[in-house]
């Protein structure tokens, strides 16, 4: 196959369209166009086309991943699931994940700590609920437990009190209703008793 035409992309000026034997074949970034030394008149093999598409796929995956994590921090599983949903090849996904981790764009320990801090600042909850949320996001059990250990029993009680304060009208300040509500939110009976007793004093 021979490269018969090269045109600049209409929507993205940083890309070029490659025509083989008079027919459009694929698009490529201008950087890779130079890197692969492609020019009109060159003969190109199927193997070379496959290599180019693999490199281009990796660059697209990396770009999509950066866009995905630009809105908020993401866990490794969230990013990987996103790339798979966009139907990138498995080897492209793995290569992208390795680069993201190497550049510290994704870090499950940092993500876990950030999640705990923001969750308890915006919408306080129990350690049990936090564990479930983080586990569902693919965080390793050991990482979750290690970061949750930073929440003291006193902080857990304060979180429970904040939750009750927001529901005090619907709970009618009824100790039994408060107990059941806090239990449904994942607080231990020891924590619940402490909250109820403090309210009654």
TrEMBL record:
Annotated ranges, domain RecX third three-helical: 154-196
Residue ranges of every copy of the RecX first three-helical domain listed in the record: 61-100
* Places the protein is found: Cytoplasm
Q: Which residues cross the membrane?
A: none
Task: List the InterPro entries.
Answer: RecX_HTH_1st, RecX_HTH_3rd, Regulatory_RecX, WH-like_DNA-bd_sf
Cellular-component GO terms for this entry? cytoplasm
Q: Which UniProt keywords apply?
A: Cytoplasm
An example GO BP is:
regulation of DNA repair
Report the superkingdom from the record: Bacteria
Q: What does this protein do?
A: Modulates RecA activity.
Instruction: Give the HAMAP family listed for this entry.
Output: RecX
State the similarity comment.
Answer: Belongs to the RecX family.
Tell me the PANTHER family matching this sequence. REGULATORY PROTEIN RECX FAMILY PROTEIN
Q: What is this protein called?
A: Regulatory protein RecX
**Species name for this entry?**
candidate division CPR2 bacterium GW2011_GWC2_39_10
Q: Which taxonomic lineage does the organism of this UniProt entry have?
A: Bacteria, Bacteria division CPR2
Protein's gene: recX
């Amino acid at each position: 196959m021979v490269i018969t035409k090269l045109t600049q992309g209409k929507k993205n000026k940083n890309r070029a369209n490659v025509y083989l034997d008079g027919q459009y074949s694929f698009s490529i970034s201008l950087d890779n166009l130079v890197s692969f030394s492609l020019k009109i008149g060159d003969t190109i093999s199927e193997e070379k086309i496959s290599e180019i598409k693999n490199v281009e796929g990796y660059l697209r995956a990396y770009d999509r991943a950066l866009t995905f994590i630009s809105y908020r921090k993401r866990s490794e599983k969230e990013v990987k699931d996103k790339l798979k949903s966009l139907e990138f090849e498995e080897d492209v996904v793995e290569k992208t994940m390795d680069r993201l981790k190497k550049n510290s764009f994704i870090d499950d320990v940092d993500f876990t700590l950030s999640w705990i801090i923001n969750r308890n600042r915006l919408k306080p909850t129990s350690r049990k609920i936090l564990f479930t949320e983080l586990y569902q996001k693919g965080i390793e059990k050991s990482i979750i437990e290690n970061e949750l250990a930073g929440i003291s029993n006193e902080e857990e009680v304060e979180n429970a009190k904040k939750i009750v304060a927001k529901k005090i009208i619907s709970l009618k300040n009824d100790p039994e209703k408060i107990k059941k509500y806090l239990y449904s939110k994942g607080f231990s009976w020891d924590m619940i008793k402490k909250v109820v007793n403090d309210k009654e004093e």
